[in-house]
Design goal:
This protein is of the alpha/beta class. 42% of the residues lie in helices and 19% in strands. The chain has 6 helices and 6 strands. The longest helix has 20 residues.
Length: 220
């Protein structure tokens, strides 16, 4: 079964989160179709544009259509001074932790990761994909996809954004906390807090973020 991966936020924005959603591809498409028909959504499903009542309905559908998710959360190091970690280093640390979490759950089953593309350029993302493949020691696949063409990645976006909103204490955070609580209790959602990586040595540059993925504004 595929595991769909998307991230939300950045350390300069207060937190960075990454969700891995396990769901059958047909079920993911059915979930998105049902959500659209009830809410009137047109275009891509984005967590940052999902209001609390719609989000509550989303998580009810998430359970109905057999979803499970693991979410990794990274907060800025409150004791750190000076330079921040590179965005790419934070992303890779979250992705490595998320993949490892899922591999621990799946045991001997092959893992098939479907990862949102577009945060970095194609060459950097290919390096990221190869990094995931190295973690899949016995079997499995990893591929990058355009979220607009993947219901599963859009679902992962809403999950990641929900935990980003809670992590930064947004105006919606308490409502979202109440929405996700029963799904955390049922172990359909599981979280893992990881430490931010160290800042790079002076002079080391970071790959440019693309479009709206800038560190101050990437709240997906």
């Amino acid at each position: 079964m595929p595991i769909y991966v998307d991230e939300s936020g950045s350390l300069p924005a207060g937190a960075m989160t990454m969700a891995g959603v396990e769901m059958d591809a047909d079920q993911a498409a059915r979930l998105l179709e049902r959500f659209r028909s009830v809410t009137g959504l047109h275009g891509e499903l984005k967590g940052s544009r999902t209001e609390p009542l719609e989000r509550a309905y989303f998580f009810e559908l998430f359970e109905r259509f057999g979803g499970r998710a693991r979410v990794c959360i990274m907060l800025p190091d409150a004791d750190a001074r000076g330079a921040r970690p590179r965005d790419l280093d934070c992303y890779v640390a979250l992705l490595d932790a998320l993949v490892s979490d899922w591999l621990g759950d799946l045991g001997e089953d092959c893992a098939h990761f479907v990862i949102d593309q577009g945060r970095y350029d194609a060459m950097v993302e290919e390096d990221v994909r190869q990094d995931v493949m190295r973690l899949l020691s016995h079997c499995g696949t990893a591929r990058m996809v355009d979220s607009r063409r993947s219901p599963g990645v859009q679902i992962a976006d809403v999950v990641a954004n929900s935990f980003f909103s809670m992590a930064i204490g947004s105006r919606r955070s308490e409502r979202i906390r109440q929405i996700v609580a029963p799904f955390l209790d049922a172990d359909l959602l599981r979280t893992h807090r990881i430490k931010a990586p160290p800042a790079p040595p002076p002079g080391m540059t970071s790959p440019a973020l693309r479009g709206s993925a800038g560190p101050e504004h990437h709240h997906k």
